Amino acid sequence: MKLKFTLNGEATSVEADGEMPILWLLRDVLALQGTKFGCGMGQCGACTVHLEGQAMRSCVVPCQVLEGRSLTTIEGLGSGRLHPLQEAWIAEEVPQCGYCQPGQIMAAAALLAREPNPTDAMISEQMTNLCRCGTYPRIRRGIHRAAKALRDEKP
Amino acid sequence: MNHFSRRHFLKLTASFGAGLVVAAAGGCSSHVVFIARSRTPEPSPRDEDPMLGWVLITPEGDVRVAVASSEMGQGVYSNLAMLVAEELDVDFARVRPVPAPVAKQFSNPKMFGGQITGGSTSTAGYWQPMREAGATARALLLKAAAARWNVSVDQLKTDQGQVLHPNGKRLSYGELAQEASQLDPPWSVKLKSPKSFRLIGQPVPRSDTPPKTRGEPIFGVDVRRPNMVHAAIRHAPAFQGQVKKVVNQKAIEKRPEVLAVIVAERWVAVVATHWWQAQRALDALELVFTTEGRPAPSTSDQRLILLKALDDHGKRDLKGEKRALDLEYEVPFLDHATMSPMNCTAHVTDTSCDVWVPTQAQTASRAAAAEAAGLDSDQVQIHTTYLGGGFGRRSETDFVTQAVTIAKKVKRPVKLIWTRSETTQHGAYRPAVISRFQVALDEENRPHRWYNQMAMPNIFAFKQPKIPDFVWGMTGDFIGLDGAKNPPYATGSKDVDSLGVDLHTPLGYWRAVGHSHNGFFVECVVDELAHLAGEDPVAFRRRFYDDHPRHRAVLDALDNLAKWSQPRPKGHHLGVAVHESFGSVVGQVVELSVSAQKVVTLHRIWCVIDCGFVVNPDTVKSQMEGGIVYGLSAATRGEITLKDGAVEQSSFHDYPIMSMHEIPPIDIKILTSGDSPTGVGETSLPPIAPAVANALFHATQQRIRRLPFSRAGFSQWRAGPDFS
Lengths: 155, 724
Ligand code: FES
Ligand code: FES
Hints:
The complex is a heterodimer. In chain A, 35% of the residues lie in helices and 15% in strands. Chain A contains 5 helices and 5 strands. In chain A, strand 3 (48-51) and strand 4 (54-57) form a beta hairpin. Chain A has a 5-stranded mixed β-sheet, with helices on one face. Chain B is an alpha+beta fold. Chain B has 3 domains: 6-213, 2-Layer Sandwich (Aldehyde Oxidoreductase, domain 4), CATH 3.30.365; 220-293 and 342-417, Aldehyde oxidase/xanthine dehydrogenase, molybdopterin binding domain (Aldehyde Oxidoreductase, domain 4), CATH 3.30.365.10; 433-719, Aldehyde Oxidoreductase, domain 4 (2-Layer Sandwich). Chain B is 28% helix and 22% strand. Chain B is built from 17 helices and 28 strands. Chain B is globular. In chain B, 55% of the residues are buried. The chains are: A alpha+beta, B alpha+beta. Chains A and B meet through helix 1, helix 2, helix 3, helix 4 and helix 5 of A and helix 4, helix 6 and helix 16 of B. The complex binds FE2/S2 (inorganic) cluster (2 copies). One FE2/S2 (inorganic) cluster (FES) sits between chains A (95-101, 131-133, 135) and B (73, 339, 389).
């Protein structure tokens, strides 16, 4: 099928099998490979992207749902400059292997969009992406740092 | 052979027309001078050219450093580049680490002469050669400047990428690189004294961090080659199983997107235009696998086999001992569960084989690729990508053999990616172990008899089936015994040994390897002894550290950091463990509480490491955190079980790992005790399981001697509430 949707702010049209998960459309057809394959079963979050601003695990969602919608991937986060989360991730030296991190950042960005001042309990509850390298303490610090930067930015 | 010393450095100009390349001569055990040979005739270094020297300085003054270890999260690209930059005296921002190709001169001096990232040896192994490479390059640049200015080298200094003349004139390294490359390198170089280090010892930001926050680094799964196709794979589920029949092969091959169905002895692969199509076609294949052969025993049978081996071996007589322990500790098989599933990309022609692979074992990968391609080793080029986790799993080469086999058949570049379930079910597992302890205290509460008999499959024997059994009779399973052999507490009669028991299950090196279980066993047993002696667990351990100053220093620092003796909130309990591995000593204290429903709350973890000498304190801290979390996953819930000769688990729902809400704050302190670094990456894992087990005992009076804790009903974990 022919799919028309907005990808990282740009109108996109692509020919694809509508059942192909968004993850594989991104990686193999559109060559956007920042979104990772961890489990393909919606369990790890390595494939997290934003569909209409909501965090979504792209490995279990067929790409036909994209029709007419807006999708943001790690490549499109931050529009032109680094997102405060990416800056915070750098300041806290969060990544180890880095494989889960695009998904972590996308999940955190969705959290901050909902909740500009998340408590530790909220982070515990809502950051469900897995990290095998164990970067959780730094992810937590990174989210707090980015939240503060975002608050300070606003007049 | 020739008489150059192994530390002799040789300049290489043949492959890169302009610029200075410094290579180490010879491998770690060989004394042969290496001569550079470029596969491509172009004179200038391009990104895809293999970098055959340690250091390359371009005429623009950019520095590339070949890094022979694989970047799997430990920060080694940055840390090894720092060693060169320190001695070269150059702005670290100008330094770019480049993965080294497979070549003798890049062998890890601490890993039997191969290019292997393992054993927590990267920084320790390359500590000397990489600083020497930097110092050699600097010496050549100084010599070139001295010649240009017609002064003696002694009058010159360097400063961050420039050579300084006494009268204030300056020449940049880039301007001198060409001339320096024509000079003979010095026979030996003097290295900086640690006191004058500018970079080493600082929390230098990792160069791979910013790209990793943008999703840019190329992991194995991200490799793209012109004309590339994709492969999905399914193995026979049982380890001994084989493919008997592919019922509907023709029909699947007719699908327009399918290029090939490849049937090997133990696996079937489908090649298609996209990976998802390949996987879908694979799912539609009707496969019949053989059930003949000897299946791996089920998990419950494996336990009985291990116990029987111990019983057949017999027990020590502890008669007459008033206070003694006579008990077994036990751990299950474990999978690495790297976040990125297994994968490899290959392109094979009649005369060449290129492999892009997230590997911890370049030398072995090259051999595996050569064999599968039917080519010579020197016709194979290994391109190391970023690793989406390694932990030992990526020191195997099964995925390399498969990708090359498939690529040879389809005559195009092929990217092979396993599913998560294939990754979980066809791993290289940490062995299950049962370890019997018979330990007795004397009048002074010293363990004067320490008998520790283990039964477990022998990893090295599994990897090297050609080694005859009698050799193991002489050497023992030295890997399985790592961390059990010489506990500081065994002050009298001691006998520690392992019985090799084949459980017909594939084995591998899992983070911390033998230490992963022996740390748990020994540090729990010591806690049991302290309890038996009626002594405080920290004070009890300290009594045995007189001859172990590093243990002593770590324990004292930990005591302070965790404020061990200070009262805790009601219901909070502490557990401690100290373990030496890979040349370093790590101690941890865990504070936790347990609800009536057996929900465990981790409040805080304190960790002290003595890693000899610190190259980058921030990456050491990262590795401490990572090893603790990895070890917690195993201790709390990790278990691979077998049924009908196959693994029962398939993904994170049945082989779960820790998540955000379960990880408390981790306070870390780093100690030093010398002038060269010791291991880091695996060293924080061994103490965490016993520290938690010991705290659980203090909280519940229940001794958990079998991992994971979930087996004893502790299946809910959380952290907090204070995360500051
Ligand atoms: S890859 Fe999508 S959740 Fe794991
Ligand atoms: S950084 Fe490696 S899995 Fe998260």
